[in-house]
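Narrative of activities, Objective 1.

The group set out to show that a structural description can be obtained from nothing but a protein's sequence at a throughput compatible with the screening campaign. Below is one input-output pair from the validation batch, recorded exactly as produced.
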Amino acid sequence: MTPSIRRGRRTAALAALALAAAGCGIRGTSVPVDAGGAPSRVSCKAPATAPAPGPPGTTQATVYLVCGSALAQVERTVTLPKGASANDPRLPTARALLGELQRQPSADEEKAGFSSALPARLRVTGPRSGDPSDALRLSMRPDDLPSFALAQLVCTYGASPALGRTHAAVLGGPGDESAHRFDCSADVLAHPDIAENAGWGDPLSDVG
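Output recorded for this entry:
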């Protein structure tokens, strides 16, 4: 068999393989690909349980936990502190939600891949003089929190009806720095480490 015939058959065989790969939805590549280790198999889906009516002083709430490299929502039954005023539920709700984020995920949540980055020592208080009414003050500067923790807190607060369901949170630290508005965008949910980027958290004077 002549070299030209062998080359023609080899070209035809490669073309057939390429067509077969295209038919299976496989995209060809011109360079070797190192797939690395097998990915971890976690569902990132909260346990499918119908929320049951809780006792007095409890409410259903959405909290955002870490799963893989993103955030995902979980429904929790949250207990509000005793004596919480129905006329001003913001601070009691903020404290209850923070407590949920600091709580160890359930066995089912852990199995699904959920975890939380919130420091156990973090505390939240209401606005101080000169702050907007929807501001919350943390016992740590927001920029000093782990990036995933800040994203969890912002998105959890932003999803709460009692806090306005604004998809954002106005947060400040314990010092004299002004509070900033942090938005829970699709980018933040998909890439919580965005909190490491300087500039996340708009000065209130700039957002009106």
